[in-house]
Hints:
mainly alpha, Arc Repressor Mutant, subunit A, 2 domains, two-stranded antiparallel sheet, 72% helix
Amino acid sequence: MAVTDAAIDKIKGMIVSGELGPGARLPKEADLAERLGLSRNSLREAVRALALINVLDVRQGDGTYVTSLEPHLLLDALSFVVDFHRDDTVLEFFQVRRILEPAATAMAAVAMGERQVEELRAIFDALPDEPSIEQLVANDLEFHQHIAKGSGNTVLCSLIESLSGPTTRARIWRGLTQEGATTKTREQHAAIYEAIAARQPDVARAWATVHVAGVEEWLRRAL
């Protein structure tokens, strides 16, 4: 195991064991390096790596702290990774979306408060009658992100948001080339909203599956 990897594992062990909790400040560099049996250079590399994935927060002139370790912070690294997808792997992201989004939509139909349902309706109504492709994609992203948040599961919400990036290109491509994409999107969003508002999780799940699978199937043919 590389020295830096060993240093990362030791710091991770302190966090997992509870010795360093969310928001805790790490000991001074010299003290921590001696305690863990590491060189200061190895420790710095480990801290830098853990800061990149939002496990640690390095504050100049103040010290190094464990972050809140909230899912949205830790899963930011996933969005960084998926931004480097190739065109031939975008279908795999859609396959994952097809698994996750229907589940989140069914959960939202049960967990969403009335105000959240009203906000979802407002997002749906905000789409102009003849939207530009940019407006269509932005509204679609906002619609699905609001549903993901409404599921009440922060990990699931963060995963779905992380997967939105690589699929945006495909959404734009679809909007530019597929006849009737705007009408189809509006109709399917309406069906999803109605199912959530009516507190019908199975129907909401089914419509979300149809919605994501439709884009996936179109992309499969296009590729």
